[in-house]
Design goal:
- It is a single chain.
- With about 450 residues, the protein is an alpha+beta fold.
- The protein is about 55% helix and about 20% strand.
- Strands 2-1-5-4-3 form a five-stranded antiparallel sheet. A five-stranded mixed sheet has the order 7-9-10-12-11. Strands 6-8 form a two-stranded antiparallel sheet.
Length: about 450
Amino acid sequence: MQVFTSMIVLGLCFIAFVFYHINDYKLRNADSMLSLAQVIGTNSISAIQFEDNDEANKILSDLQKGAPQVTNAAILDKKNNVFATYTKPGADVFQFSSHTLEGKNFEYAPRHLLVFNSIIDNKDTVGTVCLRANLNELATIEKTQYRMAVVILIIGISLAFLIAYIVQMYISRRILNMVNIMKRAGETGDYKTHVIDDGNDEISILSGVFNDLMEQVTESQRRKDEFIGIASHELKTPLTSIKAFVQVLDAIEDRQPNKQYVQKILYNVNKLQQLIYDLLDVSNIQSGQLYLNKKEFDFDTFINATIASYQVISLHHKIIREGDLVNQVISADLQRIEQVLINLLSNAIKYSPDAKTVIVYVTKTDSEIIVQVKDFGIGIAKEEQLRVFDRFYRTKGSSELISGFGLGLYICRNIIKRHNGKIWVESHGKGADFYFSLPLST
């Protein structure tokens, strides 16, 4: 838009400049010819009065030396009859007629200027001087002016484009920097990053407003996480007591349907307790207080024991371990890694209600152990695979059908990250494969 606007403005300016210059040349030329005609008229008064045609012709013939641009000239008497004429050698004969004298001092013909000046003697008009001058120089001037205008226009447009490009790069770089920070904040949930902008314009004002907004969001998150932590701690104690009493009731109650009611209460208490533990983990992660208690343990024994313990509560799915034993002792937080694997197994069963099998693969490379939990359920869309590990995020196709808060995978990601490992998901249509890796040396 800057280049286009500059092109229009420069174009209009140069058009006005060229027309003004050409018109000024024509007016100056006309004034010069009128002055010349006036001189010729003054010198011709006596020749007209004494009807001396030779003297009048001699006066006109002097134009060849004094005014070479004049191609034709004539002196008319007061009856508009031709009294004397002049034609420049090599020029065409031109007939001055009376109809060209209708109130005009000069007029332009193609490449020629016609000038008419009355000869006055004692306030009486005794005749008229007529001049016809060529304007060949005008063509040269026009050509030069147009060429100069085009060259300057090209230079002006080039400079405008260069300036526009520099300005655009300067502005775009600052705006794109802000956009990237916004995207990164949206993807990672880290709102502590500020936009650094040293400008003194509207973009710098926008950056300041954005930074203030990020500070408000960060403070809101801090208060929310603080509330979640406090609420989870406060709920943990009474819920533990409730669970203890319900477990006692479950142990002593044998009558139906009382026994069934107690077991349903115990199931929902366990579910609520797990949610509180998840909220506590999230609070610890956000505050940087997720501590690890690392110890060495045999990884094959850990995998088999975790699968066996979870198989007890999985009534409709068979959990199968495939692949060779890795025969590896690693140093990690056993309870946290067990929490990750149980969460993946729980999700695999929850999101594959029509399947009967969940498969666990364990492989080892030179530098890490990789665990894969494979289900045969609804799968995860490609555009959601990076977001399933975000806090409170749930896939669109399952949110309304399957309960959950979107905390499990977020906690898993942070646990594995604290172990210097990686966690990811692969899904191609039906089913999903969740992986996590742990380095052999930490």
